[in-house]
Specification:
The complex is a heterodimer of chains A (157) and B (363). Chain A is of the alpha+beta class. Chain A contains four helices and three strands; from the N terminus they run ααβββαα. In chain A, helix 2 packs across helix 3 and helix 2 runs antiparallel to helix 4. With 363 residues, chain B is α+β, with helices and mostly antiparallel strands. The chains are: A alpha+beta (157), B alpha+beta (363).
């Protein structure tokens, strides 16, 4: 996998699992200026209007074996093309057309000269917040880890 | 036979109006928000997602509110909603070995890499009603934190697998069949059985699993590992040509280790049962693993002792609470014509019987 694909996977994943309100809030304050700079008077074209659907989540028998269908999850997606040619795809968990549209615009902008600005204003905070939340849960789990100690039994004394 | 009848529209409208009022309850009591249901009745939400077979906590909360807390009615609403959505595809199989662990316990190994992590469990509570919760509000003290061990938390089965003491669970790379896309045909392979069990009614699955413990197809299950946590869901995106994470889901996974003395084709070794469900739902995950294992009797060359949990047709045809409740509850709908004919038949038999008695008395 090239570095570019790895980076794109990473930011698309960050967008996909972001809380909708937070993603939409960050985009409301940061996306407009970035878009204006890139659009240059042109307009973004929606290749795929936002649509809500499902993805069948699969598991593995015994955790490692054959795949089986566990159940579905809701996903919303959208695709957009910028005048410069960059195509952005937004996939977000849950049901929010606005979040999917914002994710698509961010994905497109991340392929333009606005990438650094958009990354700093949107991707980095979302990624940091997700990591912080995960670290908090891991710390709480760690506090419930059992320390076993063996009681001295009567016959051993 | 169900016969369509006309009339009753006004009564139905009024009944639904009253239902809405009863759903709301005393207007002097604050209305439940979906956020409150999702955050504070999380295990009900988990069950509705699991048996509704759709992971979306907000929708499950809405279904619970609309169903007045009736879990099966809420599952019904979720199943019905699901059919209105297009399916974008299937995920890559989730990697539960990479789970961000909330809870992880093993009943077979005390000291294991990653340790025993209790998580937010009801275990070891005294099951005494806590009247502090009946009093108003208050936020509990923040949960204790400790530095997490950055080392991976491997599946317990890997240790037994290394010694070859447990049956392998290889990936044969086959695309699983999907019972939401094609009618369930029997015999069903294990992947199809696991899909059916994952969405089966918790009570039904629990009862069957309990029956195996009490001796109906006993297979001596130990909980090798029970883990609850979050996994990333990845899907190949055709327009990109690579996979991205499309979100993350909370799952409960149970792997059982079962006694097996070997058969003509298999050496003596431990065998496995598997349970995997949406959300925090360990009773269901353990029950699923026990029933999964019981259904494997034929593949493992065990005797069919005629136990219900060994009977694939019985288990798979009766575990779905939406199918079950649909058929069960339809008998309350008008069956006037059916019943009229039954009534006529009983009256006729009565007349014949009375006539016979009268004739015998006369002779």
């Amino acid at each position: 996998m090239t570095a570019n694909i790895a980076q794109r996977k990473s930011w698309m994943s960050t967008l996909a699992r972001a809380p909708h309100d937070r993603l939409n809030g960050l985009c409301a304050s940061a996306l407009g200026a970035a878009l204006d700079g890139v659009l240059g008077g042109g307009a973004a074209t929606w290749l795929r209007a936002a649509e809500i659907g499902t993805v069948m989540v699969r598991g593995r028998t015994g955790g490692t074996g054959d795949a089986f269908n566990l159940g579905e999850m809701t996903v919303t997606r959208a695709s957009v093309k910028l005048p410069g040619g960059a195509v952005g795809h937004g996939y977000v968990q849950g049901r929010s057309k606005r979040a999917a549209e914002n994710a698509a615009l961010v994905d497109a902008l991340m392929q333009t000269s606005a990438a650094a600005t958009v990354a700093a204003a949107i991707i980095t905070p979302l990624r940091d917040e997700h990591s912080a939340k995960a670290a908090k849960r891991a710390a709480k789990a760690a506090a419930t880890k059992v320390d076993f100690f063996t009681m001295v039994r009567g016959e051993d004394a | 036979m169900y016969v369509a009848v006309k009339g009753g529209e006004r009564a139905i409208d009024n009944a639904h109006g009253w239902l809405a009022e009863e759903r709301r309850g005393d207007p002097g009591v604050a209305e439940l928000s979906l956020d409150q249901i999702r955050e504070q009745l999380a295990l009900s939400v988990a069950r509705v997602m699991g048996e509704g077979s759709l992971y979306d906590p907000d929708l499950a909360a809405l279904a619970l509110k609309q169903a007045r807390g009736d879990l099966i009615e809420a599952v019904f609403l979720i199943r019905a909603y699901r059919t209105t959505l297009p399916r974008f595809g299937a995920s890559l199989p989730v990697d539960t070995g990479e789970m961000a662990i909330d809870r992880r316990v093993s009943a077979t190994f005390k000291d294991l890499p990653g340790g025993q992590i209790l998580g937010p469990t009801f275990d070891y509570t005294h099951r005494l009603l806590d009247f502090k919760l009946a009093a108003d509000g208050g936020t509990p003290d923040a949960a204790a934190e400790a530095a997490p061990d950055p080392a991976p938390v491997p599946h317990v089965m890997e240790f037994l697998d290394r010694e070859g003491l447990i049956e392998a669970a290889p990936d044969r790379g086959e695309a699983p069949r999907d019972l939401t896309r094609e009618p369930l045909e029997l015999p069903a392979d294990r992947a199809l059985r696991l899909q059916a069990l994952a969405r089966a009614d918790e009570g039904f699955t629990l009862g069957l699993a309990y029956s195996t413990q009490r001796g109906y197809a006993r297979n001596h299950a130990f909980v090798g590992e029970l883990r609850i946590g979050t996994v990333a869901v990845e899907m190949e995106i055709p327009e990109l040509g690579f996979a991205i994470e499309i979100g993350e889901v909370t799952l409960t996974e149970c792997e059982t280790v079962n006694q097996f003395k070997g058969s003509k084709t298999e050496p003596p070794q431990f065998t496995r049962g598997y349970g995997l469900v949406f959300g925090q739902s360990e009773r269901k995950a353990i029950a699923m693993a026990l029933v999964d294992r019981a259904l494997r009797w034929e593949e493992l060359g065990e005797d069919n002792v005629g136990a219900p949990a060994q009977d694939m047709e019985f288990v798979l045809s009766h575990g779905d609470n939406i199918q079950a409740t649909g058929f069960l509850e339809h008998i309350k709908l008008p069956h006037y014509v059916d019943f009229q004919s039954e009534l006529e038949l009983i009256r006729k038999l009565r007349r014949e019987a009375e006539l016979r008695i009268a004739q015998e008395a006369a002779e």
